[in-house]
Amino acid sequence: MGDLGQIFKAYDVRGIVPDTLDEGVARAVGAAFARVNAAPSIVVAHDMRPSSPALAAAFAEGATGQGTDVVMAGLGSTDMLYFASGRLEMPGAMFTASHNPAQYNGIKMCRAGAAPISSETGLAEIRRLAEEGLADTGAPGTVTERDLLADYAAYLRSLVDLSGMRPLKVVVDAGNGMGGHTVPAVLRDQLLDALPLEIVPLYFELDGTFPNHPANPLDPDNLVDLQAAVRRTGADAGLAFDGDADRCFVIDERGEPVPPSAITAMVAVRELAKEPGAPIIHNLITSAAVPDIVREHGGEPVRTRVGHSFIKETMARTGAVFGGEHSAHYYFRDFWRADTGMLAAMHVLAALGGGDEALSDLTAQYTRYAASGEINSQVEDQEGRTAAVERAFAGRDGASVDRLDGLTVSFVDGSWFNLRASNTEPLLRLNVEAPDTAGMERLRDEVLAIVRA
To answer: By percentage, how much of the chain surpasses pLDDT 90?
Structure first.
């Protein structure tokens, strides 16, 4: 098969179709995935990209060649695949390139129970076996098609009760991604009891060429249509899903984005009401408001590195009920510790519909600091620039330094910054937070002057 290093990343497989990822590669990876997991059955789903069905079928062919049975779940979101892996107790594979442009595709893989697979926990071995190639062994496995969308929707509805809330108008931008498939099933399926929700759909047509805008809500440019629709329709809230619908971004009634850290704090408070004193996970670049609020509500904040593998492993070790990231990934113990933007969205709707406050007022209590957002700088000598920043700040009065993930420098006034190197590009990523905007901007500009010197 040759060297697959270009497409095997730290947590998944991602490449350009057909240049670096084609059906032959998918078949080889499917065989290796089956061999490494040594499970009698696996489950496979795919997104709406034109290349996804054929790649998923080739992956299944490789797995059945190893004697493994395959449940083909068809169209689904990544969190639906995690649901399938958890409910069926099978390793799973999801064909998606998430928010990447149309020419990309990829594979997100997990062990049974939606347990993460990373380079350190099986992905490197899958790559090695796929590169070597595996011969078929014994009798081939079977392929069974199974539609799991209704079961997924019913399970989510069992976790958050939306039936008693006040009527809400919500604009949902699916970005032509899988949210257009899952949102109707979860929030407005006519076969279920009617919910007091008026859903205003934007770009629900499944189209992996993304004709309206990229399905990447992390880029503010891709929220413009949703913001305008919220203001135009007088909606109570807006929701934006990425291409594989595992992340959800929230817009308030003014058309303003709600920081993912505020959503993390809000959902944490709701989960702590059900299980007082429980651990709550937050990565090291979520707002300092998150651990503050968790403590105020009797919970135990647990700080982790950035990345779903670290969060899921820490949740398993600590028994945490919930975890949130700055990138709008939200993890729930009751969802096999996997991330699901849909469940987070349901918590937001339940909180909003359970009172008479506007969303901006509701979330204001969870937003206490001024944040820069993530700022990328192209830097060839990432280590050298990071060391220069550390030298500039480490000896200052009231400054403390840690290296949990990149360089974090915290100050006694509540200000902090984190500088992390990208795993895949010559970039340094900076996040800064301070008690007020002026302080944040001063600290931001001082760090950037060193990084970009």
So the answer is: 91
